[in-house]
Fold this sequence. Notes:
The protein is of the alpha/beta class.
Amino acid sequence: MKLHVVMVQPEIPQNTGNIARTCAATGAKLHLVHPLGFDISEKAVKRAGLDYWDKVEIEEHESFTKFLEKYEPKKHHMFFATTKGKQVYSEPSYSKMEEVFLLFGKETKGLPEEVLQTYMDKTIRIPMRPTLRSLNLSNSVSIVVFEVLRQKGFEQLEEISHYFDEK
């Protein structure tokens, strides 16, 4: 299974660095959709991603429109993460999909509302108390990524450490 994490116009470099680290650890491809709210070479991005940058596959897109033209939502299994989602992130049967795209919007506004309305049946949300606005973006990405991987039986990931077996 190929997993894609799509960050649409991320604004906070530390979040993107943390998300890149999650992608490196899980083998997910990271898509960065411009404009970015920072320079990808910023120290904060690199620090958050630590020494994992060379272990993550990154594809950059000059705009959200260009991304949607290249990876047409009607031809791919795409899920739009939003607090306005119509289904819980764990409801889709990811295990039956060969390729999954998880889209996340910018920290201050999320994904564009017209996109959410167009693909409302593909929106997903993380349950939380109604009095709070949202979770941290990098935490949200991790929650959803690991649910997809759990449903796929953690394919190609080490489930149990053998660290102490070798001592």
